[in-house]
């Protein structure tokens, strides 16, 4: 099975995972990326009715609109029963690195606002220790150099992601060589640097369920397992 096929298979598994939560009165959260786009497609094909979806990016809003799924405002929905999103890396404790698609801040807001976060990924994303994937950090433009120096002070090697402006009007620094032995502590430290909007570590609010497509089957990891 190639990577695209795995994304579709895991998207279908996610729909089965949350099917019982969905009805025409249910708002859901939907993240950003190619795996999440597969979920949107699978959801649309299923003809399961939902109230609509809160999207983590303009790109996802466009994909939802293309498939006729109503867009909802998080300020109007209250707590969401479920949030579906992909990841750039996931560890066995369901801590994640996200933000490869530059949507990390809205993703973190929606994850925090959701009772259940179901993360979907192919097996290339699973690691023992986070950090091979450069850690994205969303930064207010005026603070770019200040934040970069602070990240160097933490042992990282930040690189300005050229040509990217986030949906919030900010820039992204991708940080290589960061030692992420304690993701929750590092997330808190980076998020305290003035000018940082948020970093792409999802450890304070990790996934609740992680579905992983491998060559042969779907692996399911739960935080409470
Ligand atoms: C976007 C993200 C995505 O979830 C992550 O980049 C995975 O994307 P894909 O499903 O295309 O591999 O964090 O900000």
Q: Would you write up a description of this structure?
A:
The chain is built from seven helices and 13 strands. The protein is α/β, with parallel strands linked by helices and 225 residues long. The chain has helices spanning 3-18, 34-46, 58-66, 74-77, 104-112, 144-153, 183-191, and strands spanning 27-30, 52-55, 80-85, 89-90, 96-97, 114-122, 135-139, 157-160, 171-176, 196-199, 201-202, 209-213, 218-222. A hairpin with a 4-residue loop joins β12 and β13 (218-222). It is globular and about 50 Å long. It folds into two domains: 3-127 and 204-222, Rossmann fold, CATH 3.40.50; 135-200, Alpha-Beta Plaits, CATH 3.30.70.260. It is 31% helix and 26% strand. It has a six-stranded mixed sheet, with helices on both faces. A four-stranded antiparallel sheet has the order 8-9-7-10, sandwiched between helices. The site of ribulose-5-phosphate has 18 residues, from α2 and α5.
